[in-house]
Amino acid sequence: MSACKSALEEANGDEEQAIDILRKKGASKAAERSDRATSNGVVAVVQKDNKAGAIVLACETDFVAKSPNFIKKAEELAEKILKEGEDVDLSSDIADLNLQLGEKVIVKEKKLIVGPHLEKYVHMNNRIGAVVSLSAGTEELGKDLAMQIVAMSPKNIYPEEIASDLVAKEREIWTELLKQEGKPEQIMAKIMEGKEKKFREEFALTTQAFIKNPDQIVKDLLGDTKIENFFRFEI
Predict the structure, then answer these.
(1) 205: which of 12, 92, 154, 198 fits an S-S bond (Cβ 3.0–4.6 Å)?
(2) Is the dihedral of CA 194, 196, 199, 201 positive or negative?
(3) How far apart are CA 141 and CA 154, in angstroms?
(4) Residue 201: C-alpha distances to residues 71, 154, 160, 214, 218 (Å)
């Protein structure tokens, strides 16, 4: 209130000029806060039919992240992404938030997702969310898969898609551990093969143990449904 009053006085009562003054002061304050950590925030996903807009909106404090107004603003920005695309300019919205909240706010990630059949899930703490794109399937299946993605953080859909550099890094560690254990050279290759297979399966969505029933793996749920893509968002 005092900032608005001062801006109006400086602008001699001209509201538009006062708004410009406030925004300039907000930009100046934002620059002062530029080196502050933004380790809190929320994930918001808005979905309509075969499109979803998602945003990871980061802030400084847990107090702001949990405020209804901040959560609502994140949802509004996600809807803006849904309507205008992920290249939409949100700089004005973020500048206004910086001014209103008095702390650094940034867009950590934003995404427009399009697919034949989308389902989303945002965890109750609003810090993690996921969107999965399926060739077909029920709402229940989609929700279960989105929850799986949030809980288990898969890297890819299939084991063979796990990045080779990630596997290579793990193989270096396994080799060193096996040497320390004194494993004979003639059986190390077989052990490494088993470790790589297990590693790939644990980080591929389709071969992960299903969180609701660990006796099943995810691909057992799919039937004729194909997972087209998935996206995981985390603050």
Answers:
(1) 154
(2) negative
(3) 17
(4) 36, 10, 9, 14, 11
**Is 134:67 a contact under the CB 8 Å cutoff?**
no
- Given phi > 0 = left and psi -120 to 50 = alpha, else beta, which region is 128? beta
Enter the tokens of residue 10: 């400086």
CA distance 209 to 149: 11
Exposure string over 78-89, b if 16+ CB within 10 A, otherwise e = bbbbbeeeeebe
Decide which of 14 and 226 is more confident. Answer: 226
Q: How confident is the model at residue 216 (pLDDT cuts 50, 70, 90)?
A: very high
Q: Which tokens belong to 235?
A: 């603050």
Instruction: At 125, list the tokens.
Output: 């703490």
Mean predicted confidence (pLDDT) in 82-89: 96
All structural domains of the chain with their residue ranges: 2-32, 163-203
Phi, psi of 10 (to 5 degrees): -65, -30
Reported as half-sphere exposure (CB side, CA atoms, 13 A), residue 153 has a value of 3
User: Taking the model in full, what pTM does it have?
Assistant: 0.80
Average pLDDT estimate for 61-79: 96
Residue 215 has pLDDT above 90, yes or no: yes
38 Cβ contact partners less than 8 Å away, ≥ 6 residues apart: 58, 59, 60, 104, 105, 106, 108
Report the amino acid identity of residue 223.
Answer: G
117/30: higher pLDDT: 117
Helices (runs of H) and strands (runs of E) counted in the chain: 9, 8
